[in-house]
């Protein structure tokens, strides 16, 4: 986890670092202290850190809620990753202090040709907007999927349509190219 923060230190203030937490990391009672120490060590402001959790991170809602509240007190952002694939998605939206919902790619695949997927995604986006959450559609691979998401009002997407996952060094190179233009 430290490596992601080290790389982000030199990035511009308009970018943030998203880190997926493992179940083991999330359930570590010292997580908040560890995150705070890393932020101090690398000089990254907490608002530029986004911690991604999945719905299955903790079976005990109260313990998970307490852990997330500790992280939020640090000033970091929290995203619910792979939304819609767990058992208690809606309950987690109510119980957890999250900032962002990331719609699982299983709902995005074939979006244009599967009415049920489009209806579910449209509902998720509307719900996220009503809860003042940012929403990201994951796994966008085609222009058709992007178009349907735009029509549903989704402003943020990620997937191979734009870029495969890249190493931090490559991100720096890409940012430099954009800045030069």
Main pleated sheet:
6 strands, parallel
The CATH homologous superfamily of the largest domain is called: EAL domain
Low-confidence stretches: none
Determine the mean pLDDT: 87
Explain how this protein is built.
By secondary structure, the chain is of the alpha/beta class. The chain folds into two domains: 1-81 and 89-98, TIM Barrel (Alpha-Beta Barrel); 102-171. 45% of the residues lie in helices and 15% in strands. Strands 1-2-3-4-5-6 form a six-stranded parallel β-sheet. Helix 3 (31-42) packs parallel to helix 4. The longest helix has 16 residues, at 115-130. The protein is globular and about 45 Å long. It starts with a helix and ends with a helix. The model has no long low-confidence stretch (mean pLDDT 87).
Keywords:
about 180 residues, alpha/beta, TIM Barrel, 8 helices, globular
Can I get a quick summary?
The chain is 45% helix and 15% strand. The protein has 181 residues and is α/β, with parallel strands linked by helices. Helix 5 links the parallel strand 3 and strand 4.
Topology, pairings included?
Blueprint (H helix, E strand, L loop, with lengths): L1 H7 L8 E4 L2 H4 L4 H12 L6 E6 L6 H14 L2 E7 L5 H7 L4 E4 L11 H16 L3 E4 L5 H9 L4 E2 L10 H13 L1
Parallel strand pairs: 1-2, 2-3, 3-4, 4-5, 5-6
Helix pairs in contact: 3-4
């Amino acid at each position: 986890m430290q490596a992601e923060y080290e790389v982000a230190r030199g990035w511009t203030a308009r970018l943030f670092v998203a880190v997926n937490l493992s179940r083991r990391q999330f359930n570590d009672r010292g997580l908040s202290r560890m995150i705070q120490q890393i932020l101090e060590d690398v000089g990254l402001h907490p608002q530029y850190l986004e911690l991604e959790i999945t719905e299955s991170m903790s079976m005990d809602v109260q313990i998970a809620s307490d852990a997330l509240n500790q992280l939020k007190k640090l000033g970091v952002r929290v995203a619910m990753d792979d939304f819609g694939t767990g058992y208690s998605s809606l309950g987690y939206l109510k119980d957890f202090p999250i900032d962002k919902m990331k719609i699982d790619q299983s709902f995005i695949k074939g979006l244009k040709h599967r009415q049920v997927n489009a209806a579910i995604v449209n509902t998720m986006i509307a719900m996220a907007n009503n809860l003042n959450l940012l929403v990201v559609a994951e796994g966008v691979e085609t222009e058709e999927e992007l178009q349907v998401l735009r029509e549903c009002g989704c402003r943020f997407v990620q997937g191979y349509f734009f870029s495969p996952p890249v190493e931090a060094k490559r991100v720096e190179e890409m940012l430099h190219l954009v800045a030069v233009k």
